[in-house]
Amino acid sequence: MQAVATKYTYKILKEDQHELIDQAAAVLGHTFVGVDVAGKWIQEPMIGYLKLTYEDWYQFCKDYIESVVTQGFCAVALNDEQKVVGALVGDSNRFEIYGEPIFEGSFKDMNVVLEVLEDIDMRFLTDYKARFGKELEDGEVLHLFLLGVMAEHHRHGIVEELSNLLMASAREAAVRMMLAEVTNPKSMKLLERYQGMTKYVTQQGEYIVHKYATNDRLNMIPADVADGTYIITCDL
């Protein structure tokens, strides 16, 4: 009988670790587009229902990691064969709002996802300015952007360890807050449970959420799968 790997090692990626970056992008590509792991279907609702391809999403993830890896907020979990089985990557840049479609060709439906993220990010930026009396600047918020785990065992523990690693890095960098745009209840429960992140409440006492039912490109997503994308945060 094959031994079951139950322990993993964790690393912050460096820019010269090209093979690990490639593997991290592959894990994120599969888990967002849709993959069966130990009989359990894993998929990000927007990416899956818009039918974005693995090839396009993998390249997007790889480009993103390569663009932010030097900040020290890209973490991976490695199995006993030193293969990436989980990745949590983010950055501390101020949110960039394009306000117009930027993706073309086979990846053009990524603009739908971009509109959702920009909708809630703009509302967060507005509330942040009102709350703190200043615009958000680089280095103030750790933005957890991509999370994917393909390990067959102890997936929840991997999420906990990855987020702990990035939280420690963020505190060392004197980041004020950790933030994620959560697109499904499974990810939300994990980050709530292991990092104490909660739905962000504006000064008007409202959650920042983009409801899929109100979006004519995303209203096919069943409410019992996910009802929208929320901003969740925790102070550091």
UniProtKB/TrEMBL annotation:
Tell me the InterPro entries matching this sequence: Acyl_CoA_acyltransferase, GNAT_dom
Q: What one GO molecular function would you report for this record?
A: acyltransferase activity, transferring groups other than amino-acyl groups
Q: Where is the N-acetyltransferase domain?
A: 73-197
User: Could you tell me which SUPFAM superfamilies the record lists for this protein?
Assistant: Acyl-CoA N-acyltransferases (Nat)
Q: What is this protein called?
A: N-acetyltransferase domain-containing protein
